[in-house]
Amino acid sequence: MKAVILAGGLGTRLAEETGLRPKPLVEVGGKPILWHILKIYSAHGINDFVICLGYKGHMIKQYFADYLLTCSDVTIDMNDCSVTLVDTGSGTGTGGRLRSVAKYLQGERTFCMTYGDGVADVDLSALIEFHQSHGKAVTITAVQPVARFGALGLEHHKVLEFQEKPQDEGGWVNGGFMVLDPVAINAVTNDDEMFEQEPMERLVKEGEVQAFFHHGFWQAMDTLRDKQTLEKMWEKGDAKWIINDKVKNGNGGAYKVNGFQ
Predict the structure, then answer these.
(1) Neighbours of 234 (CB within 10 A)
(2) Most buried among 9, 50, 78, 167, using CB within 10 Å?
(3) What total number of domains does the chain contain?
C-alpha cells in the first residue's frame, strides 16, 4: 500500500521556521517532522510514499537526494523503501495536489494519506482494516486534541481544581492519517480546491466518509509552541509517536525499523 504525504503548504503559523525551509523539514530531535511521519507508516509495513511538494519543495528533494536535479519528478529506491517526490505547485490546494499524483496511484485498491506536519501513535493496521471493512471511499482518523490552555474545575464561583491542558471534551476533529479509495480523487474538480472542504463535503453528502476514532496520542505541529512541545517530549525520551522497535538512548528516542531508516 502507498501513502500520500501532503507537504506543499506555506506553514505561515510557523513562520519562525518556515521562512528558511518548508514545514515538513522543521526538525524535532534533529530529524525533520517528515522523517518522523515516514517512520510511523514504515512501522506498519508501509514503505512506498508519494510526497506532494510545493513551497520550497526543492529542499525536500535535496533532503532525499541533494545531487539529483530538482526540476523533475524523482523516484528514489532506498533498500525496502521507495519515495516519489512530485512538484505539485506552490499555490495548489490539497485537492489539486492529490489530483496531481493520481497517476502514481494507478492500480492501488486503497492508499493512505496524511499531512506533512503531524504525528500520532495511530494503529495504522487497525485503521486500514476498518476502512476495508465498511466499503466506503474515505476513512478519516478522528481525534480530540489536547486543549491549548489549562482548564478550571468550577462550582459556581468556587475553583475546585486546575487541569493542565486536559483532553478536549468537545467535538472530534480530522487528525489526518486517512485511508482512501482512488475513486475519492474524482470528488476534486479543480486544482484550487482544498480536499478537506468541497471535495470532502461532496463525499460526506454521498455517504462515503467514515471515522476511525483514535483515543491515543496526536499532535499537529502548527506553531512554534507545538514544535517546542514535541521537542521536549523527544528530549525526555517520551516521544509517544514512536511505536515499534524503539531503541532508547540518552538523547531521546532514536529508533529503527525495516524499511525507512
Answers:
(1) 22
(2) 50
(3) 1
* Alpha-carbon dihedral sign for residues 195, 104, 91, 53: positive
CA distance 249 to 213: 32
pLDDT tens digits, one per residue of 89-145: 888 999 999 999 999 998 899 999 999 999 999 999 999 999 999 999 999 999 988
The DSSP letter of residue 117 is T
Q: Where are the alpha helices (DSSP H) in the chain?
A: 15-18, 33-42, 57-65, 94-100, 124-134, 198-205, 224-235
Domain around 57:
2-143+171-235
The enclosing domain of 16 has a CATH number of: 3.90.550.10
Predicted structure pTM score: 0.76
The 3-state DSSP class for residue 248 equals: coil
In a domain, 255, yes or no: no
14 part of a folded domain? yes
Inside any domain, residue 10: yes
Give CA–CA dist 23/144, Å, rounded: 23
Residue 151 lies in a domain: no
> Do the beta carbons of residue 175 and residue 143 sit within 8 Å?
yes
pLDDT in tens, 28-74: 998 899 999 999 999 898 999 999 999 999 999 888 875 355 446 77
Strand partners, 261: none
d(CA 220, CA 183): 27
Give the cell for residue 6. 501532503
- Is pLDDT at 26 greater than 50 in this prediction? yes
Q: Average of pLDDT values for 64-87?
A: 71
35 and 24 in contact (C-beta within 8 Å)?
no
Q: What is the DSSP letter of 183?
A: G
